[in-house]
Amino acid sequence: GESVGLHLPTLSVQEGDNSIINCAYSNSASDYFIWYKQESGKGPQFIIDIRSNMDKRQGQRVTVLLNKTVKHLSLQIAATQPGDSAVYFCAETLHTDKLIFGTGTRLQVFP
Amino acid sequence: DAGVTQSPTHLIKTRGQQVTLRCSPISGHKSVSWYQQVLGQGPQFIFQYYEKEERGRGNFPDRFSARQFPNYSSELNVNALLLGDSALYLCASTKDYNTEAFFGQGTRLTVV
């Protein structure tokens, strides 16, 4: 069935380094992708989105890359800060508001 | 502007009871979706309502039901609670189809 998965369950980075969180999706027809950040005890927080007609989108300190050929999505965080520590989810959708989430990657930032 | 608000924030129920969770979307947003997040997993889609009509339903039993009111707020009802219903229940609102979804803080439901 449709699924969104993440390659690395935990990613540890040093403060100031760049972080890359990867995600594989299974439905080649999905047309909209979102990255969410979730801190403990809170709801998912929207970070950045990208549509299938794009392959790169930049925000403040974050960049999302979409490779439709291999059905791969990545989130790049520049100059990672302690406040970036959280679980990150990618989600996909196809012409609806039904988001399909993966299990998430925990990002740990150490000094 | 207020974000998506959910109530209550925490709830403890016993097996067999019924529960109602509430969600108010962001002002101007017409679509509300409900998700269940079990600890350590990603959210799972339960329902989506748009303009007070059900537009999508996930793989959940009939014990789960929802509705959307004229002011676009929504309720999620779960009957005959099971221990496995313990989870964080999240509400998300979107302005229109296929636009960014914003989540509330969730309701933590514990079934004992």
Characterize the structure shown.
The complex is a heterodimer of chains A (111) and B (112). Chain A is an all-beta fold and 111 residues long. Helix content of chain A is 0%, strand content 53%. Chain A contains no helices and eleven strands. In chain A, the strands form two sheets. In chain A, strands 2, 4, 5, 9, 10 and 11 form a six-stranded mixed beta sheet that branches. Chain A has a five-stranded antiparallel beta sheet with strand order 1-3-8-7-6, with no helix packed on it. Chain A is globular and about 40 Å long. Chain A starts with a strand and ends with a strand. Chain B is mainly β and 112 residues long. In chain B, strands 2, 4, 5, 6, 9, 10 and 11 form a seven-stranded mixed beta sheet that branches. Chain B has a four-stranded antiparallel beta sheet with strand order 1-3-8-7, with no helix packed on it. The termini of chain B are far apart. In chain B, 36% of the residues are buried. The interface between A and B is medium-sized, with 24 and 28 residues.
